[in-house]
Request: fold
Amino acid sequence: MFTSPTTSFVTLLREQVRHEFTASQQYIAIAVWFDDLDLPRLAERFYAQSVEERNHAMMMVRYMLDRDWDVEIPGVDPVRNSFDRPAEPIALAFEQEKTVTEQCEALFRAARAEGDVLSEQFMLWFLKEQVEEVSSMKTLLTITERADDDWFQVEEHLAREPQVEPDDSSAPDVAGGLL
Reply:
């Protein structure tokens, strides 16, 4: 196997794989918390979000494999498992998505600064995806805050809104296949 170049982009990409896996685990923890409260739509939303974050990590893994760079699968950071109100985990998810956006921007800037046009192009899909992710989580947070203690209003909202994202043929390939 080829040894990866020691560049800022490669270092940041390896770190981002860990961030994406951590986000996946955090979303599982949130989903389980909602599931335990018998809020199935919120649980479903975050179970699906967990799979999406896992797929993002595996897209990055596939990219490193395709570039013949060394790949190491990292552990994940600790996640939060308990909350007092439904707005708390959603606010955490919203902040997490904003952080991921900043991380993707840093990856794009590193690729550009290093003249790595292939990696720059690779990151464009993630930047587009983050616009949707932040917007979607902000909307869910707003609705949850308006519902206050009437958690079932959020469930009703999610029941009315389509939860399945259309297939995106421009998405990068996923190592091991899309879940």
